[in-house]
Amino acid sequence: DVSKYVHILTKMTEILIKEAYLQEVSFNTKENQRIIIENLLYNTQSTDFENNSYRDIYKYDVTTPRRVVQGMFLTDHAVDTALYKYLQKMVPDPSQTIFALNRNTLTILSTLTKPALLRLNLAAIQELVKNSFGLDLVFGVGSVCTTSAASRKSFSEAQKSLMWAKNLVKVPIQFYEDLD
User: Fold this and answer.
1) How confident is the model at residue 69, as a pLDDT?
2) What is the pLDDT averaged over residues 58-80?
C-alpha cells in the first residue's frame, strides 16, 4: 500500500520538476529574444552581432535573411501569457524567428522574406488575435536584412510602414517597398 503512494508521489514530483523546467526554459527564451531585439534594433552602437558574440551566446545568426515586422495593437490590453503562447505557435521557424511582445507593440524578426508568404502569416496572426482576444493588430514590414545595420534600417522602415498603415491608409499589413 505504501509503495503505491510512494510511486504516486514520485511521479507527481517528476511532473512538477518538468513543469518548472519548461517554464524556466520558456522564460529564458522570451528574455533572450527581448535582449536580441533591444540590442540589435535599438542599440545603434552595437556591432556584437557581426563579431559572433550574440551568435554564440544567444544562438542568433544575424546573417540569416529576415524582415523586421513591427505590429501595433489598436486597443489597449495587458500583455498576456496566453497571447504570447499563441504567437509563439504562429511564427514560422521558431528556432530562428525572434519576437517580442510589449504592451501595445509586437516586434518580429521573421525568416519569411517573400512578401506573399509573410503577408499570409501576418494575416493569420491578425485573425487569431482578433478571434481569440478581440484585439485589432496592424503591421509594418521592412526590407530584407542580413547585417546589424540592415536590421536597424529594416526596423526603421517597418516603423514608417506601420505609421502609414495605421494613420493614413488604414491597411492591416503595409510593406515598406509598397509605399509611394
Assistant:
1) 95
2) 83
